[in-house]
UniProtKB/TrEMBL annotation:
Domain of life: Bacteria
UniProt protein name: ABC transporter domain-containing protein
Annotated family: Belongs to the ABC transporter superfamily.
Protein's UniProt keywords contain Manganese: no
Organism: Actinocorallia libanotica
PANTHER family: D,D-DIPEPTIDE TRANSPORT ATP-BINDING PROTEIN DDPF-RELATED (PTHR43776:SF7), TRANSPORT ATP-BINDING PROTEIN (PTHR43776)
Keywords of the record: ATP-binding, Nucleotide-binding, Transport
Family annotation (InterPro entries): AAA+_ATPase, ABC_transp_ATP-bind, ABC_transporter-like_ATP-bd, ABC_transporter-like_CS, P-loop_NTPase
Chain ranges of the ABC transporter domain: 18-240
Pfam families listed in its UniProt record: ABC_tran
Amino acid sequence: MKGAEGAEGASGAEGALLEVRGLNVRYGGFHAVRDVSFTIGEGEILGLVGESGSGKSSVARALTGLAPRTGTVAGPGPRGVQLVFQDPYASLDPRMRVGRSVAEGLPRGVGRRERPAEVARLLELVRLDPETARRYPRELSGGQRQRVAVARALGARPRLLIADEVTSALDVSVQGAILNLVRELRAELGLAVLFVSHDLAVVRYVCDRIAVLREGRIVEEGPVGRVIENPADDYTKSLLEAVPRLRLFEHLC
Ligand SMILES: Nc1ncnc2c1ncn2[C@@H]1O[C@H](COP(=O)(O)OP(=O)(O)OP(=O)(O)O)[C@@H](O)[C@H]1O
């Protein structure tokens, strides 16, 4: 539901896919996310950055109902937003073949007979051989496992993917391939992404805009180039100074 305030001049709010206003997350007496507001447009990739403990995962989890929240979240319904976590080792059931894990993400409307073809389509979408369906997670590399987790999330045909530190558990050599996959999925499916990461090099490579979170509040938000080249906030500057390898992914562009 759109707020009644109407034209308040917030850039991008018009026609936004997701509109978050005054989001708060409290764990008992601890106030982890404080009055956070942002929008994500159709097919847009918004980076959410900040140091450990700044509240990034709490925002991601609150948007998918996994953390307690107050505030307004207007956007796609529950199936329209899917979350992919940092650790594909933990998010895939080790006793389940990949095909079954991916099939679990499909809506009920997909009949039993259509499922194998749909699973194959999803595996191809994340650049995995459909034969991968017969394998177990332990037989795959970390990058392949993360692709399986993305395939499962895509089964619900989301309009927004929340990617929470999806490259952090991977070798640097594999990170770029997963980042390229995120960009390709946006181009092919028009998927919007909330890309949560502590790594500004990663965020710079994949995002259109970034929002910087500090102690639960957004201290700066804007186009990724502007925020990284010319940060307005001292905290953003200190985050940038802590990242010695900002150019890492440029060769992939
Ligand atoms: N379930 C919980 N109960 C109590 N406190 C929590 C809970 N989850 C997170 N917190 C606290 O909320 C704050 C924000 O945590 P959150 O995981 O959202 O931060 P983050 O920026 O994602 O950090 P990291 O990158 O280390 O995961 C931290 O101080 C954390 O200890």
